[in-house]
Write a structure and sequence with these properties.
Blueprint (H helix, E strand, L loop, with lengths): L32 H7 L1 H22 L8 H21 L3 H27 L5 H31 L10
Helix pairs in contact: 2-3, 3-5, 4-5
Length: 167
């Protein structure tokens, strides 16, 4: 029994096995994997797209004649932010907000594809490859800016709400 005469109630001897019996505790109801994926689809897509964007950053840097080793580390936070924004907007099905960013992203991918095709056909440095790399980099930068602005506007106008508690 607890000693209530002390300043802080103290129970010096714990009586009863109920304290350590785990059967009297409620079990945790974990949602199925499909439900978890449905709730976190924006984040999962965003992480996957951020990794893809980072690969694009390395590919764009590799196409330059003079390697700029500072470019990828400096731009990584922006690439990740763009990937998270794209994944979130795709999960929320906001096509009208995605259109400008996706159009610029497709343009950048086309320029990167042309740069890779030109690299296969020629050897050594080429001014045309540098131009394609710069245009692709600018296109990717504008795409990321458009995606982040679209994310901010969508969340401002139609914020994401937490799910209702199940209790």
């Amino acid at each position: 029994m607890a000693d209530f005469t002390t300043r802080v109630p103290v129970e010096t001897e714990k009586r009863g096995a109920y304290l350590h019996d785990r059967t009297n505790r409620p079990t945790v109801q974990r949602p199925p994997a499909r439900e978890w994926l449905r709730r976190n689809l924006g984040l999962v897509l965003g992480i996957a797209l951020a990794l893809g964007f980072e690969a694009l950053a390395f590919q764009t840097r590799a196409a330059w004649n003079v390697h700029r080793d500072w470019v990828v580390p400096v731009t990584t936070p922006f690439w990740v932010l763009g990937g998270i924004a794209l994944g979130h907007l795709l999960a929320r099905l906001r096509g009208e907000a995605l259109a400008p960013g996706l159009a610029l992203l497709v343009l950048g991918l086309a320029l990167t594809g042309g740069n890779i095709a030109l690299a296969i056909q020629t050897d050594g440095p080429r001014t045309s490859r540098d131009v394609l790399s710069i245009l692709a980099g600018v296109s990717y930068g504008l795409a990321i800016a458009a995606l982040v602005v679209a994310l901010v506007l969508v969340e401002w106008r139609h914020p994401t709400h937490a799910t209702e508690p199940q209790m």
